[in-house]
Design goal:
Length: about 250
């Protein structure tokens, strides 16, 4: 069977962008060579911060119809399929008996999200969430916080399209890259040569070499791209480093 070719993909995070200009900031990143956009959804519970959710993404989607959108779901209950807190009302304030939407998964799919990346620490039922995400038509990403051992994800790798190794504690942009997370990336790459492995947190031109060498091929970068004078140059530099590592590793295999 032929091997799947691994590709480098750069997905800037808009977390530290000017969120009052979400569309123009997103378009600027796409024009700068982003392969996808990494949208950090936070619920103020799983992490001590709040951002935006599917209603805003639904407004953004038609303005950038071709973009691949990944949501990084830093939420406590990614599996909650029925809305427990919201009384379903129609636009005249009457109870909407027909609605049976999930709290996050189905509304995300409805908003036009392409990949739903949730945290393994936030659920007891990883297979159920993976199945629901797929049934909703999205790709599946599973994320691990810095304190979570990589061996825990082994039994779920086949259910996922991508594994995310956090290189900072989730919740805020602009934090220091945790070099000691590279062991997890190396372990995954050694065991799964064709897996999409994403890193997120403190990744930029000064840390991309470590990520690439460890085997990451999907690169989230927030402040290093957003704050750059020339975001296109930063994206291109990181892409070169990762592509070179992929080629080198494939020759060595
Ligand atoms: C942190 C978020 C990251 C963050 C990355 O919780 O998941 O996506 O925005 O930003 P930088 O690259 O600035 O660490
Ligand atoms: Zn993120």
């Amino acid at each position: 069977m032929s091997k799947k070719a691994l590709h480098c993909k750069i997905g800037p995070s808009v977390l530290n962008a000017d969120l009052s200009q979400l569309y123009s900031e997103s378009q600027r990143l796409l024009n700068s060579g982003a392969d996808y956009l990494h949208l950090d959804v936070m619920d103020g519970n799983f992490v001590p911060n709040l951002t935006f959710g599917h209603p805003i993404i639904k407004c953004l989607r038609p303005k950038i119809p071709e973009a691949f959108l990944e949501t990084h779901m830093m939420v406590s209950k990614p599996e909650q399929l029925k809305c427990q807190f919201r009384v379903e009302l129609d636009c005249r304030g009457r109870r909407d008996r027909g609605s049976n939407l999930g709290q996050w998964i189905e509304p995300s799919a409805d908003a036009g999200v392409d990949q739903y990346t949730f945290h393994i620490e936030a659920t007891d039922d990883v297979p159920l969430i993976c199945r629901k995400i797929r049934e909703s038509g999205m790709k599946v990403g599973i994320g691990l916080k810095p304190g979570t051992a990589v061996s825990i994800v082994e039994k779920y790798v086949d259910l996922a399209d991508m594994i995310l190794i956090m290189t900072v504690e989730p919740g805020f942009g602009g934090q220091k890259f945790m070099t000691d997370m590279m062991g997890k990336v190396k372990w995954l790459r050694n065991n799964y040569p064709e897996l999409d492995i994403e890193v997120d947190g403190g990744v930029g031109p000064s840390t991309i070499g470590l990520c690439a060498e460890a085997g990451a091929n999907m690169i989230v970068s927030g402040t290093a791209v957003i704050g750059a004078e020339d975001p296109g140059k930063v994206i291109a530099t990181m892409r070169d480093v990762v592509e070179n590592s992929i080629q080198k590793n494939q020759l060595e295999r």
